[in-house]
C-alpha cells in the first residue's frame, strides 16, 4: 500500500484531463488552498460522495504525563475532523450500490 502524494495527484489530473503538468499542479494547489482557507475560517468542507472535513474546538482539560504521573493543563485547541460519506464507507467495505455505481473497484 502506498501513500498518495501531491505529485501522484498532479500526475493523475494530467493523465485524466489532458492539461499540462504545470496547469494540473496549479489546479491541485488552488483546490487545496481553497479547502485549507475554508477550514482555517472555521467552516466545513463537504465533498459529495467523499466526506466532510470540519473543525472542532476542544476545551481546556487536565492531562497526565504517563511517565511521571504529573498533571498538566492541556490548552484549548482546534482539531480537524473527517467524517466519510456513506458512499465512501461502502466502497471501503466492498459493498455494491447500484444507485451510486459503487462496486469497490478502482477508477
Question: What descriptors fit this protein?
Answer:
elongated, 36% helix, 25% strand, two-stranded antiparallel sheet, 107 residues, 3-stranded antiparallel beta sheet, alpha+beta, disordered C terminus
Short note summarizing the structure:
With 107 residues, this protein is α+β, with helices and mostly antiparallel strands. Helices cover 36% and strands 25% of the residues. Keywords: DNA recombination, DNA-binding, Transcription, Transcription regulation, Translation regulation.
Structure report:
By secondary structure, this protein is an alpha+beta fold. It has three helices and five strands, in the order ααβββββα. The protein has helices spanning 6-17, 21-40, 86-92, and strands at residues 45-47, 51-58, 61-64, 71-74, 77-84. The strands form two sheets. The chain has a three-stranded antiparallel β-sheet. A two-stranded antiparallel sheet has the order 3-4. The longest helix is centred in the N-terminal third of the chain and has 20 residues, at 21-40. Mean pLDDT is 90; it is low at 102-107.
Amino acid at each position: 500500500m502506498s501513500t498518495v502524494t501531491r505529485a501522484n495527484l498532479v500526475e493523475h489530473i494530467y493523465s485524466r484531463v489532458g492539461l499540462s503538468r504545470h496547469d494540473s499542479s496549479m489546479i491541485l494547489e488552488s483546490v487545496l488552498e481553497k479547502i485549507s482557507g475554508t477550514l482555517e475560517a472555521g467552516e466545513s468542507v463537504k465533498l459529495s460522495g467523499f466526506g466532510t472535513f470540519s473543525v472542532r474546538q476542544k476545551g481546556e482539560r487536565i492531562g497526565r504525563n504517563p511517565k511521571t504521573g504529573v498533571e498538566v493543563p492541556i490548552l484549548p485547541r482546534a482539531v480537524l475532523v473527517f467524517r466519510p460519506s456513506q458512499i465512501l464507507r461502502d466502497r471501503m467495505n466492498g459493498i455494491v450500490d447500484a444507485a451510486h455505481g459503487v462496486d469497490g473497484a478502482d477508477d
